[in-house]
Design brief:
By secondary structure, the chain is α+β, with helices and mostly antiparallel strands. It is built from eleven helices and 23 strands. Helices cover 31% and strands 25% of the residues. The strands form seven sheets. Strands 7-6-5-1-8-13-14-16 form an eight-stranded mixed sheet. A four-stranded mixed sheet has the order 18-19-20-22, covered by helices on one side. α1 (2-11) packs antiparallel against α2. The protein starts with a helix and ends with a helix.
Length: 495
């Protein structure tokens, strides 16, 4: 087009001055319009983005087992409804679904079955779905954990509802736009593993005095020395709107184990559910059709919680602390949204790979000792750590020698996302952020299955609760570096 305009301007030399001036103005205007219409560096080529979101109720019935404690608890009251919240993105060449469930732990078989149901009904490939649990400690037991056992009927219900939610989100697909940003909220996260003064850490459940750190020590304990690890204050936000600017969904990520502070026997989504409601109100997205969906994913938070161990405890009403954390995180997410630039065309890619890891199984002598301890219980519930971990030892003796884990990496625009089926230590999340080829990267833990805690090599050497061999911590000591290497390989591939 520039050549054509240049030829036209050359003709003006042979014309009178008024016409020459008119043609010059016309040429400049055409060049301006053309440059305005051309894609900028930030814009992406390809088809326009489609966005869909939905939430499906996964609230249980009363009397069901609740995860989150070493002793089994029963649901006696529904404080707030639990949901599977789903976001579907389609850029014309790739379609992905992200599902986040108000649950403590969800085993791989439930996610695999739900993905298969979605594929059968919609054609969406199973390896294009990321499904995760939030890690609320006040939801029905879906995966066996300590003395809590799942109800088969609820597991089936949960599976179907997860699949239904993805199908509804696909039905809700409309042309949309997307943007992202990162904020910080450092006042709500504290490392929960502490170095203590010599001689003040009790023996582990196996009678050994080898732990160098203690998880969740007494607040204000004079024996506290220093935290055993860092925290991650990032509040990563992905915001989705219709092309007209109507809020459709918001996905955020924060690295905080959970908050807690409920009444006994209550079912609750914890601050993950509160965040979904709070961000909807902040965005003025109430009573929309289809409804706005807020989603908060849990980052690499295995050793991070909301307790300031240096300070003396403050008495709070049930759910009060949850509300305070929610307000802080949602307010920061809302602040980030105000500065987001939106795009209607983005790169969208997902890759996954499976990794085989060894299981730290107990030896025959350990199993016999555990069986003697459990036999003395005579069918009663275990109460001491020795009794509880004796049961765990027996359970682990029935595990296979090796297990397979799904590791995923997803690119959404210029954001990288890593999904790991473990309770991931914060140091691992920080390492992935530092080494990722993307400027913005975050980890979604407890994704596509549940394989216990994932400590670093250094944290394994320090010992403590998260390393004690149990259904909650059984992967080989070298699991973390192997998973990190695979995750970085996938991130570099999709970049």
């Amino acid at each position: 087009m520039h050549k054509q305009l240049w030829r036209l301007s050359s003709l003006a030399v042979f014309l009178n001055r008024p016409l020459k001036l008119f043609l010059v103005i016309f040429i400049v205007a055409c060049m301006f319009v053309q440059s305005f219409l051309q894609p900028t560096e930030a814009a992406e080529t390809g088809e326009r983005l489609l966005v869909g979101a939905a939430a499906g109720n996964i609230t249980p019935w009363l009397g069901i087992s609740i995860n989150g404690s070493m002793r089994d608890r029963k649901a006696t009251h529904i404080h707030d409804q639990l949901y599977a919240r789903c976001l579907v993105l389609d850029n014309g060449s790739t379609r992905v679904a992200i599902v986040v469930c108000d649950s403590c732990l969800i085993p791989r078989e439930i996610f695999d079955q739900a993905k298969q149901m979605v594929q059968e009904h919609t054609g969406l490939q199973t390896n294009h779905m990321l499904m995760a649990a939030t890690h609320t400690h006040f939801a029905p037991t879906a995966a066996p954990a300590f003395q809590s056992m799942p109800d088969p009927e609820y597991r089936h219900f949960l599976t179907v509802r997860i699949a239904d939610t993805v199908r509804c989100a696909i039905d809700n697909l409309v042309p949309g736009r997307i943007g992202w940003g990162v904020g910080r909220e450092s006042k709500q996260v504290f490392n929960r593993r502490w170095h203590m003064k010599p001689g003040t850490i009790p023996p582990d459940p196996f009678g050994r005095t080898i732990d160098q750190v203690k998880m969740n020590p007494k607040r204000g304990d004079p024996n506290l020395v220093k935290p055993a690890g860092p925290t991650d204050p990032d509040v990563t936000v992905i915001s989705l709107q219709s092309v007209e600017g109507r809020p459709l969904a918001l996905l955020a990520n924060y690295t905080l184990h959970y908050v807690g502070g409920t009444d006994p026997g209550h079912v609750s989504a914890d601050y993950f559910g509160m965040f979904a409601n709070r961000i909807r109100k902040l965005l003025g997205a109430d009573l929309l059709d289809p409804p706005f969906v807020g989603i908060l994913t849990n980052g690499a938070s295995a050793d991070v919680n909301n307790i300031d161990f240096r300070a003396k405890p403050k008495r709070r009403h049930p759910y009060e602390q949850m509300g305070m954390v929610t307000d802080a995180v949602a307010s920061e997410a809302f602040r980030v949204v105000q500065k987001i630039q939106y795009h209607q065309r983005i790169p969208l890619t997902i890759r996954q790979a499976e990794i085989q890891l060894s299981v730290r199984r107990p030896g025959e002598t350990e199993v016999r000792q555990a069986e003697n301890i459990v036999a003395n219980l005579k069918g009663k519930s275990a109460r001491t750590l020795e009794e509880i971990y004796a049961k765990e030892t027996i359970d682990l003796s029935k595990y296979p020698d090796r297990v397979e884990l799904i590791i995923q990496a997803m690119r959404i625009g210029e954001v990288g996302m890593v999904a790991i089926p473990c309770e991931v230590f914060v140091e691992i999340g920080l390492e992935l952020k530092k080494k990722s080829p993307f400027k913005t990267t975050f980890v979604v833990e407890l994704a596509n299955g549940y394989n216990g805690y994932l400590p670093t090599l250094a944290q394994h050497k320090l010992g403590g609760y998260e390393t004690w061999r149990a259904k909650s911590s059984y992967l080989e000591v070298d699991a973390a570096p192997k998973i990190v290497d695979l995750a970085l390989e996938l991130l570099n591939h999709i970049k």
